[in-house]
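Q: Here's a chain of 441 amino acids. Please give me its 3D structure as tokens.
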Amino acid sequence: MRDPFRRTIGVIAAIALGLALWGADAVAEDQVVVQRNVSVREAPDRQTPVVTFPAIGQVLDLLDAGARTGGYYHVILPDGRTGWVYFSFVRRLPETAGGPATSLVAGDRVAVHYIDVDQGAAALLEFPCGAVMIDVGGRGEAASAHLAAYLDAFFARRTDLHGRLDAIFITHTHVDHNSNLKAVVQAPGRTVGSYIHNGVMTGSGRANARWLAGFPPRTPAYAAAAAPPIQVREVSEDEVAAAGGQGLSDAVIDPLACPRVDPRIRVLSGRYDDSPGWSDGELDNGNNQSLVIRVDYGAASFLFTGDLEEPAIETLVSRYAGGGVLDVDVWEVGHHGSANGVTESLLRAMSPQIAVISMGRPSVHEKWTAWAYGHPRRGSVTLVDRYVSDKRRGPPRVLVADKVKQFSAYAPAHAVYATGWDGDVTVSAGPDGALRVELGK
């Protein structure tokens, strides 16, 4: 876990540095600038000894033509020593490595909108050149109406996107993660570039999964509109494993290419066809088939683990141990903050600044709600609160589940947010990685 004081100072320095760099007209193509407190290590592995701790704003020369090994850049220090620095703590100069330097503008930000869809998950990721969604679930007509209105307002503001979602990711085939798939895809004026899923056609969300996996649907509306085809891509665990230690990506998974700061989207875990050694029944648990998605924008990073439960979480942590791939700034807390969706080993690997739980309001006492499931559990929230480093804003006391249908008050000390407590939660960042939270919009 990173030291909160050092991180706060680092963010302030990074903001100042970012403002200075935004007006730059030309920079070297073989350097990186330190954005956050980071160590330079003897080898591309965070278990190896530290060579030094470079200052924020220090520029380091790149070796090996700027190639990355295990997520690390090989650098040479001003005193002639060499070492390895993890890529997400530095920024390549220029932003578009290998191309002409380009000044940044005020709109060069990412904003992740965690939309309040009651008991479920729906996240809209907004970039300067496009938008994607990760899950489009929710419970009930009110949640569906809110999601539709949110997207309509978004596209009314972002007229440059012409109603287009570049990709929709569905982490797994459960209705609380894909219940609004048809409505989102078929909204008037809407187009979708790609649909990425785990290929599982069973589970409570199977109807929507089968519908879009066979796209384009033969409906009069789509025939009349001559809608362009959606590229459908299912991701298996075998593919992810074969891609090496940095996750799987291609033009369908990562369709965006913003001109100044290019987002990076990767799938870190896919559908398991064979058990990696789990106990009986764990392979058939649809939650453990969740896609795990990492999104990077400059120095800012976001992780989505769907409803992954403990056995699959431990497999994920083991795969990426020591490589820094799971080290992110913002985490959408797994399985709506349930008792089996959070582990200390994952939190230790992530060391997040902010965590967001997508779940319903505990005050709604009906079936299929946060109240009925006991989300989020006190033990999980307490554990997340211990590892998150930023401070929370918003109501000082919230409700957490002691067990199913029984809730009591809790006072988060750190930046743990939830749609069931705070309404819509938006986390945005510039290329320097400085994060900003907005609630109830």
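Q: Can you summarize the key feature?
A: DSSP finds twelve helices and 24 strands in the chain.
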